[in-house]
Amino acid sequence: MAPSRISPPSPPSSTGTDSSEGLSKEQLHFYRENGYLLIPNALDSSTVSSLLGETKQMLEDFSLDDHPMTKFSTGEGDEKHVGDDYFLTSGDKVRFFFEEAPNPMRRARPTNLIPKPADAFAPDGTLLKSKSHSINKIGHYLHALLPSFQHSTLNTQNASIARSLSFRDPRVLQSMIICKQPEIGGRVPPHQDSTFLYTDPPSAVGFWYALEDATEGNGCLSFAKGSHKMTEVGKRFVRGEEEGTGFVDVEGGRFPAGETGKDGRGTAGGEEVYTVGEVKAGTLVLIHGNLLHKSERNLSGKSRFIYTFHVIEGENVYDERNWLQPPEKGFSRLYGKREL
Asked: What is the DSSP letter of 269?
């Protein structure tokens, strides 16, 4: 099914990584009203092919010999969100996170059945697919450690977009490849990015680049358009006092600076109407940190690889409770010296 509404067409100046024009007035208006924006052809075909090829090579080359087999869990239902040391120390590394093991209750099928091919792991922990087809995501420092991803992140185009969004000192963090593997790509429930990368006040914006076509069939994004205006960031994802991770109430700002919630839902969890965001490879999706968005499982035979990173306001407070802590050099600056 096609999206029920798409963003305004991108201007000619936004069709490559050398653009310095930023967002048009129409695009900025759409983003502010809806909380997301689709920009086709933000990456040219050669860049898309290069990033996708490098990703698939990494999936073939990484070793299982010393891998803790960490599975990425969103914490839906009775599952705990991922929070082991391999995850918590990945902020300045390139690490590989597997799809979740099967949860028979959530899958609504008898526990005595042999796992179907739509699972990455058997209940005993055995991989049912090759390692390269069992990874949920690769993260979280690709933009600093891998030159091709650095070039596609710390560039004039993304800096110009950040400037259009009124960032003063945008910092880049949590860069990752999300694979949405064929048949086993996990569902991501409705969430707000500022829950996981909290600043006071909230400031996160997701930059989400499609490396393959994303459709309803392979688990494209869906957006509760306008929810960023009415849904505060009420919880934040933090490190546990001794180990692991968890969610706690937000004690600071719950909307970005200059934005106040309109009368409406107030907190996440109410009934929402979601707009499907099918996109072609090369499209950039901008996602407001307060926007509720989600993606469904990929039960198709086609993967849905994307590259994403987040930008936060460097002048806002980002404290030691956040799960992802800055590397020794601090989070990467998106503006160069001439732009500060």
From this structure: T
